[in-house]
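Question (not urgent): is this output format expected?
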Amino acid sequence: MEPVTLIATDLDGTFLNSKKQVSDLNRKAVSKLKNHGILFGIASGRPVETVRAMLKKWKIEDSVSFIMGMNGGVVYDLRQRTKEEYHVLDGEVVLDVIHFFEDLDVDFWILEGATRYTNHTSIETQEHARIFGETEIEIDLEPYLENNTCNKLIIHCDKEYMPIVLERAKQYKNEACVGFLTADNLFEYVDPRINKGYGIEKVAKHFGVKLENCVAFGDEQNDKEMLEKVSMGVCMKNGSQDVKECSAFVSPYTNDESAVGRFIEKNVFKEEMDVIL
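Got this back:
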């Protein structure tokens, strides 16, 4: 493996366990990276604002140098406190997607900072928003989007209903956006140029590091381009099969078994692997 200068990790299903917490092993591993001159950051589909707000709760605020949010559409440098946004979706494009799916049993979410705007709210979705550090507000999305832009549109449904959404998505054709699955109950649309592979390129360029010296961790379809772009893309044991197939390494551990921390200890801090493992 090439000398490592930058590490990026997905959150849900990867760095966070199933309780949406950071394990002690993961926390201890990333806390040592800075002393070794290695940059560490988050690469998530979440907004950078909500991720940043959670860093203290996760006790990793001193370890994180950057946040790549919105699946590569936003990059935030925590040291310089600078934020860059790329290729937002026009509101008319988002409305076109909504109109195509609106007869299905789904909810539509638009994220603006830590606020989640939706066409339908419930106790369950409000609790989901709270867990992710968001505030959910029910509004009429039609006038909101007519003269607005957004980073992405999220289609939410029960996971048992997702096959119907996926089948409908196959029928939708629009060169102005691209859709993909990000969780068993979430399907998202973004600008075709946006993905985590694009985002990691922007992060590497921002910090002046080479992709050959980058490691990335992920588990789902929206992590695929990032794992392919870096020299060492690591998929969790609990990751989807197509992501495993495109990754340089598949961890024998799941996100609930601190796969990220175990990989860092064994492959970055080789001298300490016997102590940890």
